[in-house]
Amino acid sequence: MLHIHQQVSLALLFTSIFDHVINANEDEIDSLPATISKEEVFSLVVSNYVDKLYRYINYNFWLQKAITDDVVQEIFLALPKKLHHFDTNKKLEPRLFKVAYNMTLDYIKKNKRRNDKEIEIDIIATEDFLYQVSSQEGELPQTLEKAYHEGLLRFVLHKLDQRSRQMIILYFFENKTYQEIATIIGVKPSWVGTLLARAKKQLKFQIQQDALLHDALIYDL
Known about the structure:
Helix content is 70%, strand content 2%. The protein is built from 11 helices and 2 strands. Strands 1-2 form a two-stranded parallel ribbon. α4 packs parallel to α9. The radius of gyration is 18 Å and the shape is globular. About 4% of the residues have low confidence.
């Protein structure tokens, strides 16, 4: 059995894949001064959150990179008009995540008549890649190992329904609190625990049902 394909802790995989992005954005904008201009807000948002929003969209939706680039660009072009609705006494990031998610859904709906192959990543190709890598013998180059792990994450996330996928990403990838998750998805904070438990149950079930994922991942969340 391939060394890289020994079972990987799912919790560790969540953390290791995204550490470099999370650590690069430690200075979160908790709140905004009441006197700050829209232009200053926009500049802060771009410099502090572009990577986070890109990652959030990238793993919530099975989109081609070029499409994700277009969506992120549209989000930032629209933000100056949306920012004046934000309460400067509340945290900015959860509201940005909510705007990004909703605008991505709108983008997909507006382009639903296009061929799915023009918008979405090829799921079958991703699965084929994972099987090919897992069947190889010996050590893998670091770049291929990372691509394999990232492919596993994409593959397992794609098997979840949209709400469960969003819950897993917000809680485990983005380290959001229950209150922040409630703001982003538009539910009462008391519902977040229930939704998260359902998402984790679905995640565990999907791993157990798929031979590739079952052999590759240790469910330890």
